[in-house]
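Reply to thread "Modeling small-molecule complexes from scratch"

Following up on the discussion above, here's a worked example others can learn from. I took a protein sequence and the SMILES for zinc ion and predicted the complex. Inputs first:
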Amino acid sequence: MFIINCPFCGERDQSEFSAGGEAHIIRPKQPTELSDDEWADFLFMRKNIKGIQFERWYHAHGCRKWFNVVRDTSNDKIHAVYKMGEKPPIK
Amino acid sequence: MSESFRSSETKFLEKTIRISFKFNGKTFYGYKGDTLASALLSNGIHLVGRSFKYHRPRGIMTCGSEEPNAIVQIGGNGVFTEPNVRATEQELYEGLEATSQNCWPSVEFDIGGINNLISPVIPAGFYYKTFMWPKKFWYSLYEPAIRKSAGLGKSPTQPDPELYEHKYIHCDVLVVGGGISGVIAANISADNGNNTLLINDKSSLGGSTIYQDDQNYKINEKISSDWLNNEINNLKNKENLTILNRTSLAAYHSYNFLLARENISDHKSLNERSNQLRQRLWKIRAKKVILATGAIERPLIFNNNDRPGVMLASSVKKYIDHYGVRCGNKNVIFTNNDTSYETALSLNKKGLNVSVIDIRKNSSSKLVQSVKKNGIKIYWNHTVVDTKGYRKIKSIQIMQLSDDGSNVTGKKINLDCDCLSLSGGWTPMVHLFTQSGGKLKFRDEDQVFLPNTAMSDQISIGSCNGDFELDDVVNNTITSIKKFLDITSTSFDNLNIHCPKQKENRNIWLLPNDKPLGKTKPFLDFQNDSTAKDIKLAMREGFRSIEHVKRYTTTGMGTDQGKLANMHALGIISEAAGVKMGSLGTTTFRPPYTPLTFGTIVGRGVGTFFDITRKTPMHEWHVENKAEFENVGQWKRAWFYPKGNENMHQAVQRESKTARESAGILDASTLGKIDIKGTDASEFLNRVYTNAWSKLGIGKCRYGLMLNEDGMVYDDGVTTRLGENHYIMTTTTGGAANVLSKLEDYLQTEWPELDVWLTSVTDQYATASICGPNSKNILKKLFPSIEFNDENFPHMSFKNAKLDNVDCRIMRISFTGEHSYEINIDSKYGKSLWEKCMETGKEYNITPYGTETMHLLRAEKGFIIVGQDTDGTMTPIDLQMDWIVSKKKYDFIGKRSLYRSDTMREDRKQLVGLITDDPNEVLEEGAQIVRDVKKKPIEMLGHVTSSYFSPNLNKSIALAVVRNGKKLKGNKLYVPMKNKTINVTVSDYIFYDKENKRLNA
Ligand SMILES: [Zn+2]
């Protein structure tokens, strides 16, 4: 049960949030131009990292905002939290 | 009355309060302050249970949560009965009833004891090996028999009447453990302005130091117990300190989130408990955590080390010093280190006969000197090779150890003994530390695992951090706390501490014997009856990982989670495998540290509080009119309204007929409603629905289908354009929350440039849906100012209106295929709207119908229900709803996926109708559909998704998904059931009014 520092609300219990998977996967602007393989890559392929992972979270029981989190999946340490559209503060 | 074993006065008991209790039906007496275990021992009772596998007699071994044997059933046969209670932790109360578990017919004479005689044929893995075959015997024969003789106590058969609750607490510093290091830590923390919480699993603070009144142990020239008592008194008036006694930590999660269970009334008599909370689960968020969880003494592993009367030396000391109870008259202490010499001195001081067997060759500490001075006989370099006595130990045999400790030599010496105290050194309680993600290190000199690196802001102090001597405990605690809390000086600086012990011990995991291992019974896990032999057998059979050996031999799998003997198991494995002890790691310690009751876990969330119940504004009316309800997610929806003695079928047939013939009314308030505003609202709808929205006129409604990005149908519903930049979307009842978060997701992450604002208004509006040929007449009477003709108010359009002075939205939309209207009104007027509709519709026999009739009517029309006729693998094309998929739109969610090779396959499962040969045969929803019954294996083509008897068509109808179903239209298929096979014909899935004439009727 970790604590997430929502960029809009501040520190809240994990139970208020839901996880939204890998971050920075951009929906293709012209899906019809893509081959089946390219579209499948966007649709289904996700990294499953042990270590630092960039991921999306949704403050479902709070401000209802989506945002990005940098989390170490091996120990749940959160290294950064930033809004949608912002550049990751760490690499 | 039997002999009293209460030997000495003690300030820890209230001798004026005598308590009577029952054990196995017999009445005994103890005092306030006793545990069940100390009270039993004071009555000379050691034998309290039988072991799990061999049914060997077992006695009280410890005085705490690590107890493997003294596990009893508390509270008689009634609703308050509770199995698996540790007698060593249960405080005595007036009228307590306890019974032994795992024995039949009685603990003194136990039939299962025959397992002990045949134990050579019950090796490790015996249950796995023997009862696996033949498989069919497992459920009928083996499992019931094993369960009956395997004593895990009896669970209560009635609901638990007691109260439990959950409580959250936030603190700067949490101190876990009320021993000397915990008390010092709490003192320093609170004195330095930290909001501090101290939790202690015993009824009072002080740990084992509080009864240490030996002159050898001094702090600032005071006996250590007096010094500590003074410090505990200092704690009492600190404003920023909260102390929770009788509270044990169950789990330590990441980010310093911890769960603790507080016992509030378990120590009180049943009379005193009435209407009190029984237990409270504390959910603790701490900025910093200080673990002072102590250490558990290790037993020694030798032949027949499990007889009643064989106990841990530190426990024997607590029983005499704290409870004034002697555990035996002829005491022998068997040890590998100095601490148990304290026990020898305590017993000696009370005038009891005691001698010591030490596997070390000597020790010259002050403590040992003073034992010698008191004339206590010490057998150096000796080990116990056997014990005698069935219901209690009577004598022991000892032999000299060889120089390297691997063998025994010389002659056997026989010693009388009715209490054998064991001390094999100490195991720091690092369970909570590792639960929190901490990594351990191994200390070779005394073979202990210690906290190394922690994942959160925490430290371990005292004996759980490997400090076992008073001076180390106090000095290191103070140094670490100062660093941890960033403090330069404390009131505890420069203490003068006397401690007479030395640290050397001699560690031999499995003590040698004159007999080979196969002929002896050196027990490791007392509760699960696993021996050193079992471990070695597992190794011979090829098990190497500690986790595998543990499961195969069941070592450490009991309710005590192997607190006593896991280290010995590891030691024996590493010796047999020839690897270094530290390199094997340990088994994983999982929460809870000690068992929790189910009541504590659920707290107040029982019965109607188990889950949220959502009720519509009309709910009371449905109740008053005898509706039966069904659960749809958290909603209670009216299911059908039986009249008189009608059953469900009869009620639904009547409701369905009246709805088509005159007028029906449905409470549709549960449908999800999302208010959509913004200059880009139309564009947004274009992107999320499969059909086009830009040209929808103001005041018009449209049905939309929403896909996932993978092309599969996700939700559906009607959306109405209320204004230029204003829409109201309806979703399915169950999908409302998911649709909203999905829409927010796209809006916030993919299309932040769109000016669109979403608000959930599901709870703000109540909805009554009136359908049937007379619906128009009823609406006319309700809203006389509106012209209800097809020109002014056509199908799929909307009007603002007023009912009396209250604003309403009326949509002319239909989910039944009938001419019908939906009236939306502010929730608080929902019930009066409904009553008004009923009153106005009386002359047309307006009939309330529930979800069952709604499902039937829409099935007649072939309208899908997302989640019933679809399952996340159906595209709109599979549903034969090609008409709703825009070919012109460049993009919408899921569009590209409709052109993937797999979604374009023609032989996908597709939605079809099924007509049974026998019009009265109603198919079972979920039934499988096949083409050929005889072909084996039977090829499944699909399944029935919706099925009803239609009163309007007077025959059975069904919707189904069938592979290649579109092309199978007109073909005969089969639905094999348990007793028969039903013949069906694939049909169109619109059964009623294909031309939609009734919409404008
Ligand atoms: Zn937020």
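What I'd highlight from this example: The helical segments of chain A are 36-44. The radius of gyration of chain A is 14 Å. Questions welcome below.
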